[in-house]
Specification:
Largest sheet: 8 strands, parallel
Strand content: 15-25%
Order of helices and strands: EHEHEHEHEHEHEHEEHEH
Low-confidence stretches: none
Helix content: 25-40%
Number of strands: 10
Mean pLDDT: 94
Shape: globular
CATH topology: TIM Barrel
Number of helices: 9
Number of domains: 1
Radius of gyration: 17 Å
CATH architecture: Alpha-Beta Barrel
Distance between the termini: 6 Å
Structural class: alpha/beta
Length: about 240
Amino acid sequence: MSRVRLEICLDTPAGLAAAVAGGADRIELCSALDSEGLTPAPGLMAQAGACGCETFALIRSRAGDFVFGDLDLDAMRRDIDAARGAGLAGVVLGASRADGRLDEQMLARLIAHASGLGLALHRAFDVTPDKVEALETAIGLGFQRILTSGGRSGAPEGAELIAELVQRAGERIVIMPGAGLEPGNVADFVRRTGAKEVHAACRAPLPTVRGGLAAELGFVTPGLQDTRQAVVEAMRWALDGLD
């Protein structure tokens, strides 16, 4: 089996350093992972642009659904400009119609603005009612990669559909499973699905010393986590052990 690529999603400078040191093949750069990820700040983009690891920025202007209007489009175009200016390799996009199908018109406008950058489709794919139709739409739009949990809360639960998508996609586009993948389950998952790339946060709880008055005033959220080098290394080790 060829080497499975590992993409790490993260939202902090420390997480970026941990992912690079741990052996990530690619970074998905975000902010606010506790809200399922938003566009990263310019400072973090600049750090990622200098980190030496291929990095794609998530372009998602707000929390909530993926049904975007003209104001969202304007914000996302500016975010794409920031990613390009930081020297990042690509962007991660997604947009839905009210019925959950991919919004081809909105995506085409975003893709045109991202000319020259790599393109990945985020989990707006997972809310589509017909995943085979969405797969063909993504290919037609020119995406290189689809991040998906197989339409379930986690990729392990969506493994059957993911395996089907991998087969249907062939060499036309990469199906990259994500959500719920950990060092303990990723090798078996790859064997079951045939995935050639996987996506994970590799997070662990932060030390509880960050507290005091900042916590009392609500600036420190209980249960904070961040990407940790040891978890990334364990994920890489599990994938490299595949035969």
